[in-house]
Specification:
three-stranded mixed beta sheet, MgtE N-terminal fold, Tetracycline Repressor, domain 2, homodimer
Chain lengths: ~450, ~450
């Protein structure tokens, strides 16, 4: 991925940013603000956002105060999550409000959601676009409603082509908005979709109703943003209409608005599998990261003590055959590894919609066969190595058998734990590696120590 | 995520598909093909693709032979990876070629890449669009060139607005193609970009050169598809021009073409972290899954034996104090859990471009502080529980100290292992949980057993 010549271009670009950042910082040291602003202004807003977020807080606050609302609005649109939060906390409502007026409605809503309630109300009062933005505020961030924009074009089905064209000329939509033209009845119920080209080539008297494609796919505002993402991906749409519970058109989600959702959901699953919460980030203040991680470690410790209890129950066997203690962690660990492979596959397949509850049985069969086949191979390998090392045939056979049993346990738990979580409507990704290895640790110790106790006379 | 009423809609939709599938299958049983085809034809191609991939191989082969090329082409466009592979393996070249002629060029290229070389050549020979598709074939699947389409609109910079409009009317571009109009010189070097609106409102004699925005962001065809994804995300583009090494415009990537890349890359990282290869899937034949998983388990077993060697070196201490064997796995495991939290965060942050090599030092500091803080808390908790359980103050203090040392080891390895892999240009996600826990197992056992040996007289 990194060996191609393209990397050099990338490095050059970074070096360029670096040079400009240095020069801006330097100019600020000397108090020459206008020149620094001029240099910044030449960059793309995405790059401006990048540079601004790298400045010291003091310099940044000074700089932000001097930005015109338009620049500020663009920078806010290109900043992500934590970095945007940092920035808006430094801005006063009278500075923020005009910038939000110039932003896309969905971005303004996102930012208002990020502010403390009192500051959000204060900022909204100062906004001239309050009437457009306020209706979007009730939708939670991660719903389709939270991702949509209310800046869309809707034609009425009983208009003629002539009326539709007059309306389009009058509203002067952007290129993005004319991609799909949605058609509603007089009560704003979504009826169909029509393309600009179909409107342009039709005769002026044709009713829009006769041109539109009915049965347009839509998403409800209250649905999870993931539903919108899946529809857009499934049908390769550029935009998706959003309706309320009475099927009235309330907004539109475009593919670029929803693009980040796929990454966010993947990050969330990946983090949960590792025992991190979804807001974890390398730039998150340490104080906010400590507790969520600690909670997870305490859960892992509790399950570890349960496994320790199993070992403790067999302490006389260990006392008699010390070599058991040597291989115990290996047997528990390998069962865990096999289980983590399975649980990761299951969680990801469910997230991507490739596996639903109907597909569980063949998948369980598949994983059991894989666990069994690899369990036999790893079991034989392990037994051979243990025998070669310790020269103890009994121990070798017990260890090999225990690993086979534990790998089958691992893949079974790897399927059933996330599936059970899903069945009770919890996130399958909560079946993290740490929870799964509780099973493989406890049962791994139990199989190995149990077998060793039964065959103690043959081993010792 | 699943508690809202929207789920019922989803379930109803699934029930609908289910009913149609049943009815189609039933119709096939009775040999009434036309009616089944009719029912299928009423569905959206994405749904058709879904249903077709659920049919038995025999029924499907019969059905595919009866599809018109256009239907087949649409179904292929909506099928994903494994399922599409299954399908195209069942189609003869004379059936496949006309379907590919009707597909988007980038999809035709994807499918030709999936075929064995000989069949791909045979199919290409039969295609009427071979001349358009062949130039796209040299680009590997996961590069920008492999994602682009050659169906784009390029205007020449020395054309007038009038000439540009005549060209547009003549080529009759789709809505997607007129989103951005790219401008080149006579040798096809990319010079700028202009919007349809700018063309329409300008006076007919104006040269396109005067209207265009120069310095358009582009991506090289040989670059990784991830670079294209990052640019589109960073700048919120709907499309991105692709150039060759001489900066000649060779194609365009649109946001819907690149959308799946984010998910693919996330899946790849998630799978690698768990010791799965990137092509793993719940519908992959078992034979192909066995070996990659086994290889990883053998690697894990090898590192497990290294850890066992450490335990073995201290067998006389365990022989003297059996309680050590009880807590040994817990101490190794918790260090591993802390390390997996860190490595997952680092790998994901690198993948999302939120962390580059410059940001390593503050991140290492951050993780060390978190590891230290949580290590002290977990260490004290563990010591208290061990003391309460075993009434052995020496053992409690040794266990608590060992867990603190091992958690700091875990977070350090969690940062340094993926960073080192990246520094030598390997994928940081290869620093999987299993590799990381090699460190925490070996050092965890070493800390605990070493301390226990030193203070054996105080513990026993």
């Amino acid at each position: 991925m990194s060996e191609d010549p393209a990397d050099q271009v990338h490095d050059e670009e970074e070096a360029l940013d670096e040079a400009i950042l240095e020069s801006v910082l330097h100019l600020f040291d000397e108090g020459v603000h206008p020149e620094a602003l001029e240099q910044l202004a030449e960059l793309h807003p995405a790059d401006q956002a990048d540079l601004v977020s790298q400045l010291d807080e003091e310099v940044r606050t000074e700089l932000l105060a001097r930005f015109p609302a338009e620049t500020l609005s663009q920078i806010l649109a290109y900043l992500r999550d934590e970095r945007r939060l940092e920035l808006i906390e430094e801005l006063s409502s009278p500075v923020l409000a005009p910038a939000l007026d110039l932003a896309d409605f969905d971005i303004a809503v996102d930012i208002l959601h990020e502010l403390p309630a009192e500051r959000a109300r204060e900022t909204l009062r100062l906004m001239t676009t309050a009437a457009d933005v306020a209706p979007l505020l009730p939708y939670a961030d991660e719903t389709a409603g939270g991702r949509m924009t209310s800046a869309f074009i809707a034609l009425q089905e009983d208009w003629t082509v002539d009326q539709a064209l007059a309306y389009l000329r009058q509203t002067a939509p952007t290129a993005e908005q004319v991609f799909y033209l949605y058609v509603t009845d007089r009560e704003r119920h979504l009826q169909g979709v029509v393309s600009l080209r179909e409107i342009v080539v039709a005769s002026p008297e044709t009713p829009v109703r006769d041109l539109m494609t009915p049965d347009v796919v839509s998403v409800r505002a209250s649905e999870d943003q993931e539903e919108a993402l899946r529809s857009i991906q499934r049908y390769n749409f550029i935009a998706l209409p959003v309706v309320d519970d009475e099927r009235r058109l309330v907004g539109v989600i475009s593919v670029d608005d929803i693009m980040d959702v796929a990454e966010e959901e993947a990050t969330e699953d990946m983090f949960r599998l590792a025992g991190l919460d979804e807001d974890e980030s390398v730039i998150r203040p340490i104080g906010r990261s400590l507790l969520p991680r600690l909670v997870w470690l305490v859960v892992a410790m509790t399950s570890g003590f349960m496994a320790a209890g199993v070992v403790d129950a067999f302490d006389s066997t260990i006392d008699r055959i010390v070599a058991i203690a040597v291989f115990m962690p290996l047997i528990a660990g390998l069962g865990g590894n096999a289980g983590v492979q399975t649980v990761t596959l299951i969680v990801r397949s469910m997230a991507l919609g490739e596996l639903d509850l109907r597909g569980i049985r063949p998948t369980l069969q598949r994983e059991l066969l894989i666990g069994l086949a690899n369990g036999v191979i790893i079991g034989v390998l392990l037994a051979v190595i243990v025998f070669a090392w310790k020269g103890n045939a009994g121990l070798a056979i017990v260890a090999g058998t225990a690993i086979l049993l534990n790998m089958v346990t691992g893949v079974t738990a790897g399927v059933l734990v996330p599936v059970s979580l899903r069945a009770v409507r919890l996130d399958p990704a909560l079946a993290s590696g740490a929870l799964l290895t509780t099973f493989t640790d406890i049962l791994g110790f139990f199989f190995f120590l149990g077998l060793a106790t039964i065959f103690a006379d043959q081993i010792a």
